[in-house]
Amino acid sequence: MEHEQIKLCVHHREFDPGVPITENIDKYMNKSWKVVIIMSNDFARSDWCQWECDYVQERRRRQGKDACVLMMLKAIDAYHMTSGIRSLLHTTPYLRYKKGIGEALFWQAVVNTLRRPLSVPPMAI
């Protein structure tokens, strides 16, 4: 979804080979303007995503709620819901994706949210 001046960090493209994954995550999250979290059951099942979720919570404590952008790709089933994800969802506005329904509006909202200064919270749809 790279768009105009928005560049995403994609692990298989940006991460430095031979460097531990935690160092790569730390390096690129610190270089990033905002962190995008795409929520789904696959995300909730991943130990690495859980670690990243905790990392984002710490970043939000330092930089404010709008330091990350949450996108709900698919609702997370109750048995995959962790306390960390639940806390993030209860404290952060998120954009909900629905295939075929308002997709253009959704992606425009994502771009607008990514462009907003950190002092302006994202708008939930």
UniProtKB/TrEMBL annotation:
UniProt cross-references to InterPro entries, sorted A to Z: TIR_dom, Toll_tir_struct_dom_sf
Subcellular location: Membrane
Domain annotation TIR: ranges: 1-114
Keyword presence, Membrane: yes
GO cellular component: plasma membrane
SUPFAM superfamilies: Toll/Interleukin receptor TIR domain
Example GO molecular function: signaling receptor activity
UniProt keyword Electron transport present: no
Name under which the protein is recorded: TIR domain-containing protein
Species of provenance: Mytilus galloprovincialis (Mediterranean mussel)
